DNA sequence: ATTATAATGATAATCAATATCACTTGTCCA
DNA sequence: TGGACAAGTGATATTGATTATCATTATAAT
């Protein structure tokens, strides 16, 4: 998978696995520094990208134009709050059930990723 | 809605309404220049933002970290091609039907937008 | 232990998006 | 009709997230 082990990558991945807050790069960086104070922000960026490339993490794009990361690779919808900007998992399906948990849903976007018919040829 | 009429805003909105390609700012800018050669890129940014704020357009965030815009405010899923980066409307529901049209679907993200329970209080 | 090279960390560079500000233009009203 | 006020524009500077660069460090095979 990766050509060599690195302490930094392990720490970055552990930080990501141990939270459900869908953190930004900066948050992962701050947490990683608590374990490896010498780690650099470039290494955090690099490893998060690598984790995504290797299918070990997903990027969640938010309206504030920052990348958030999620190590939970099971398919599940997210809820993004326009007030505090938090990204949360919503395990139930459908507007009604989400509303019952206190979420005020204004909009819903669904995006499929893959290869379009032209490129598939 | 808007406090004053402006030719520039009308052109930007018309450009957006007349395409289904979910264009970037730059594409809208180039098209708008064909009608109003003196229009500035800042004006295009500004008006696209305003259109979104007023519920006349939506932002589609793509993995290339650029904002794409869509004047179709009906709720509909998008398909983003990892090969060419195009953003397309997929009007049918479900992986199977999309696959029948030649799309190779690898992943699907659903995001709800609104106010989280804590902020709603 | 030696060696090849992957990975790191500091920092420069990139680039999309936003802010600034003097100037222009739409709209109100005398 | 003609100011006058302020919204809107356009050129450009600034910001800020992400990526590239490169000398140095560290992993893993021999």
Question: How would you briefly describe this protein structure?
Answer:
Two copies of one chain form a homodimer. Chain A is α+β, with helices and mostly antiparallel strands and 121 residues long.
Description:
Chain A is α+β, with helices and mostly antiparallel strands and 121 residues long. Helix content of chain A is 37%, strand content 22%. Chain A contains five helices and five strands; from the N terminus they run αααββββαβα. In chain A, the strands form two sheets. In chain A, strands 1-2 form a two-stranded antiparallel sheet. The first copy, chain A, has a two-stranded antiparallel sheet with strand order 3-4. In chain A, α1 packs across α3 and α2 crosses α3. The longest helix of chain A is centred in the middle third of the chain and has 13 residues, at 41-53. The radius of gyration of chain A is 16 Å and the shape is globular. The two termini of chain A are 29 Å apart. The model of chain A has no long low-confidence stretch (mean pLDDT 96).
Q: Strands of the largest sheet of chain A, in order across it?
A: 1-2
Structural class of chain A: alpha+beta
Order of helices and strands of chain A: HHHEEEEHEH
Total helical segments of chain A: 5
Low-confidence stretches of chain A: none
Sum up the structure in keywords.
alpha+beta; DNA-binding; 37% helix; two-stranded antiparallel ribbon; homodimer; 121 residues
